[in-house]
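Quick bug: SDR family oxidoreductase output formatted oddly.
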Amino acid sequence: MATSDSPSIFISGGAQGIGRAVAEKFLAAGWTVGVYDINEDALAKLKAERPEVIVGKLDVTDFKQWEDALADFTSHTGGKLTVLDNNAGIIGDGDITDQSPEIIRAQVDINCTGLTLGAKAAHPYLKRTKGSHLVNMGSASGIYGQPHIAPYSASKFYVSGLTQALDLEWRKDKIRVVAIMPLWAKTKLADVSAGSTRRLGVRITPNQVADAVWKATHPQNFIERQRHFYSVSAADFILRYLGKIGPQFLSRPVNAIIAG
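Here's what came back:
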């Protein structure tokens, strides 16, 4: 059983999908786990199945709700927080001309602003906890801009940039900042018409992403601690490194083929 002395993880948008898998992974290791989500039905289901999880409602676009949720969770942990898993995110399906202004705005509000507000709200708790981590949920779609999910893809570039910036900004506070960069995982978020779901397939499981979160928050040595981006499968690892070293005249046609 977890206690106030146990390491702790707060997962936003964690009532189902990848967040739920992360919760299960850390629970099994004896961590104190908090899952906060806007989906109250999914929270109730999780609480019924896993009564040891601390749950609460959270709209990540509201900073006051972030403050209240973290205060609630850390009241169970002696005021400490080992890991914030910035997991909440949404996707819009289709060309930007076909997406409503509301869904375009929501992707920026949740995937970018919500993630940033979470980092700000969690900082005081992470700062006072030895070995703390901020984990941002990125995506392989943040390697090269993806058509048909353009606002979502762009939001994941933001995640990468924020991760790099906070890694430098928070070094003085000894908070390690990392991002997970998977291809499509078997969740509701992958139920879109983007060509890459057909070209590359939807092969990654939520448990594999949870394993990557665990690895990212448990660096084994100095070299590992210098790493800040984590792939989940061999395919997204290859794409990420090809995106770094590949010339533009090759990257564009390759991504055009992937996007279908």
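Actually, after a second look the formatting is fine. The CA atoms of residues 105 and 219 lie 36 Å apart. Closing.
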